[in-house]
Amino acid sequence: MFRAVLPRASPRSAFRHAGSRAIPNNFVTPMIFIGHSKRGFASEADHDLVIIGGGVAGYVAAIKAGQEGLKTACIEKRGTLGGTCLNVGCIPSKSLLNNSHLYHQVLHDTKKRGIDVGDVKLNLTQMMKAKDTAVEGLTKGVEFLLKKNGAEYIKGTGSFVDANTVKVVLNDGGEKTLRAKNIIIATGSEATGFPGLNIDEKRIVSSTGALALAEVPKKMTVIGGGIIGLEMASVWSRLGAEVTVVEFLGQIGGPGMDAEISKQAQKILGKQGIKFKTNTKVMSGDDSGSTISLKVEAAKGGKEETLDADVVLVAIGRRPYTDGLNLEQVGIEKDERGRLIIDQEYRTKLPHVRVIGDCTFGPMLAHKAEEEAVAAIEYIKTGYGHVNYAAIPSVMYTHPEVAWVGQTEAEIKASGVKYNVGTFPFSANSRAKTNLDTEGLVKFIADAETDRILGVHIIGPGAGEMIAEATLAIEYGASSEDIARTCHAHPTLSEAFKEAAMATYSKAIHF
Ligand SMILES: Cc1cc2nc3c(=O)[nH]c(=O)nc-3n(C[C@H](O)[C@H](O)[C@H](O)COP(=O)(O)OP(=O)(O)OC[C@H]3O[C@@H](n4cnc5c(N)ncnc54)[C@H](O)[C@@H]3O)c2cc1C
């Protein structure tokens, strides 16, 4: 709340130009304002707040609302809290990424470290169990937190009856009707299908099926070289599958990944054994045989080629999920991509109905959903809230990790702003060298006139943790000199971060 109204301390050199340049120009600001109807408030409301959806957005809103003393109910139909993230997204994928990396390292990366190991065998059932244990522990933990903070958890499917009334079809049978002063829609997103390919979650899978394969496929084709596709490609390639990634664009990692970093990522993942077909489109698929055949050709047209695989992962993106909410009944509108339309305070045209997380604007990320949840409750409680959409990091948890915050070099160039770039390779960082893990680099981009940091892009060990410092720097409007003059512990990977900042405003020492 206070961050929205209090002036910030000025960073050393950045304050000269503290304007709007740091806001990425590819972000659609959630501010399509329709005009509010008269507050249709029901005096007989039995809840201050009803939340539909118990994913990251919904459960965080429920906890925060409970802390703020709002009588709150959170409706979730899945049977467990935590949504996509905890059940079939961030958490299970990171469990498999971590353990498949360990397996791969033990198989291929111990001899030179002076560790001789005997027979190494994959126990996929146990690896899946470890994943399930993490998921179960965390979802139960969230349930406990709701209880601890006095928020009611209702297992069922919610839909609008009228502007203040939500009906719940209970998972255990029966119905319940809730009257609410405020309603938050947090129903999340679902995987986008591929026309002509029938996802059975066994042979043709979405990310959900890819997180639960019963055996390692001999050959796997991944349609879509975005973050989810590449993370899953890494898991199954490390476990022994021959993986080919087909990507329509000329680069992997999605359009948010800086082109220079994307190139590095493709090179490194290629060395690990993943094959890439960029600038390539899938034309059709046939799953009638013992393998699945995909016909692919160059995105701009050209010679057709057939790719055979035991498993095909469709990872071409996610779309907002709002099915069955009966939104037409209350007049809540979507845009052409199915995102629910809101203003800057997350309000729909019904001012007491707000929308947060994947089912509305902005990047589909768990931490973005979480920020919005806290802000939405603050708006309800106090009238003030704050999310800085220019400082939302992205991480790809491959090895090495890729992480970034702020704008890409291509975006900055297109905006016409003059900028400086500074890079530092991990091959010149003492800790990375000690750890025999030297692939990648840190790249800073700063405004040439003010030195304000506009974007930071990292590929390398620990990038996902390191990006927090860059996010803080952007949040505080720091200059590259601010970072360069901040003492970083030795020997750490974060010295590469400092040195890249030094290279941006002056010169690196160790390269
Ligand atoms: C494989 C994968 C990996 C990912 N990895 C990351 C990552 O590393 N980092 C990251 O930041 N993000 C990651 N994401 C994205 C992240 O999971 C989502 O951004 C996040 O879960 C969005 O939260 P949400 O609460 O908006 O939606 P969701 O998590 O989708 O939750 C919405 C919930 O609403 C429920 N629901 C829907 N309709 C109703 C209804 N009518 N009544 C009751 N309940 C309903 C659904 O059952 C669901 O549980 C990943 C996603 C996937 C698929």
Automatic annotation (TrEMBL):
<dbReference type="GO" id="GO:0045254">
    <property type="term" value="C:pyruvate dehydrogenase complex"/>
</dbReference>
<dbReference type="GO" id="GO:0045252">
    <property type="term" value="C:oxoglutarate dehydrogenase complex"/>
</dbReference>
<keyword id="KW-0676">Redox-active center</keyword>
<keyword id="KW-0274">FAD</keyword>
<protein>
    <recommendedName>
        <fullName>Dihydrolipoyl dehydrogenase</fullName>
        <ecNumber>1.8.1.4</ecNumber>
    </recommendedName>
</protein>
<dbReference type="InterPro" id="IPR050151">
    <property type="entry name" value="Class-I_Pyr_Nuc-Dis_Oxidored"/>
</dbReference>
<keyword id="KW-0560">Oxidoreductase</keyword>
<feature type="domain" description="Pyridine nucleotide-disulphide oxidoreductase dimerisation">
    <location>
        <begin position="392"/>
        <end position="501"/>
    </location>
</feature>
<feature type="binding site">
    <location>
        <begin position="364"/>
        <end position="367"/>
    </location>
    <ligand>
        <name>FAD</name>
    </ligand>
</feature>
<feature type="domain" description="FAD/NAD(P)-binding">
    <location>
        <begin position="48"/>
        <end position="373"/>
    </location>
</feature>
<feature type="binding site">
    <location>
        <begin position="187"/>
        <end position="189"/>
    </location>
    <ligand>
        <name>FAD</name>
    </ligand>
</feature>
<feature type="binding site">
    <location>
        <position position="158"/>
    </location>
    <ligand>
        <name>FAD</name>
    </ligand>
</feature>
<dbReference type="GO" id="GO:0006103">
    <property type="term" value="P:2-oxoglutarate metabolic process"/>
</dbReference>
<keyword id="KW-0285">Flavoprotein</keyword>
<keyword id="KW-0520">NAD</keyword>
<dbReference type="InterPro" id="IPR001100">
    <property type="entry name" value="Pyr_nuc-diS_OxRdtase"/>
</dbReference>
<feature type="binding site">
    <location>
        <position position="94"/>
    </location>
    <ligand>
        <name>FAD</name>
    </ligand>
</feature>
<dbReference type="GO" id="GO:0050660">
    <property type="term" value="F:flavin adenine dinucleotide binding"/>
</dbReference>
<dbReference type="InterPro" id="IPR004099">
    <property type="entry name" value="Pyr_nucl-diS_OxRdtase_dimer"/>
</dbReference>
<feature type="binding site">
    <location>
        <position position="317"/>
    </location>
    <ligand>
        <name>NAD(+)</name>
    </ligand>
</feature>
<feature type="disulfide bond" description="Redox-active">
    <location>
        <begin position="85"/>
        <end position="90"/>
    </location>
</feature>
<dbReference type="InterPro" id="IPR023753">
    <property type="entry name" value="FAD/NAD-binding_dom"/>
</dbReference>
<dbReference type="GO" id="GO:0005759">
    <property type="term" value="C:mitochondrial matrix"/>
</dbReference>
<dbReference type="InterPro" id="IPR036188">
    <property type="entry name" value="FAD/NAD-bd_sf"/>
</dbReference>
<dbReference type="Pfam" id="PF02852">
    <property type="entry name" value="Pyr_redox_dim"/>
</dbReference>
<feature type="binding site">
    <location>
        <begin position="224"/>
        <end position="231"/>
    </location>
    <ligand>
        <name>NAD(+)</name>
    </ligand>
</feature>
<dbReference type="GO" id="GO:0004148">
    <property type="term" value="F:dihydrolipoyl dehydrogenase (NADH) activity"/>
</dbReference>
<keyword id="KW-0547">Nucleotide-binding</keyword>
<dbReference type="GO" id="GO:0045333">
    <property type="term" value="P:cellular respiration"/>
</dbReference>
<feature type="active site" description="Proton acceptor">
    <location>
        <position position="490"/>
    </location>
</feature>
<feature type="binding site">
    <location>
        <position position="358"/>
    </location>
    <ligand>
        <name>FAD</name>
    </ligand>
</feature>
<feature type="binding site">
    <location>
        <position position="247"/>
    </location>
    <ligand>
        <name>NAD(+)</name>
    </ligand>
</feature>
<comment type="similarity">
    <text>Belongs to the class-I pyridine nucleotide-disulfide oxidoreductase family.</text>
</comment>
<dbReference type="Pfam" id="PF07992">
    <property type="entry name" value="Pyr_redox_2"/>
</dbReference>
<dbReference type="InterPro" id="IPR016156">
    <property type="entry name" value="FAD/NAD-linked_Rdtase_dimer_sf"/>
</dbReference>
<keyword id="KW-1015">Disulfide bond</keyword>
<dbReference type="InterPro" id="IPR012999">
    <property type="entry name" value="Pyr_OxRdtase_I_AS"/>
</dbReference>
<dbReference type="InterPro" id="IPR006258">
    <property type="entry name" value="Lipoamide_DH"/>
</dbReference>
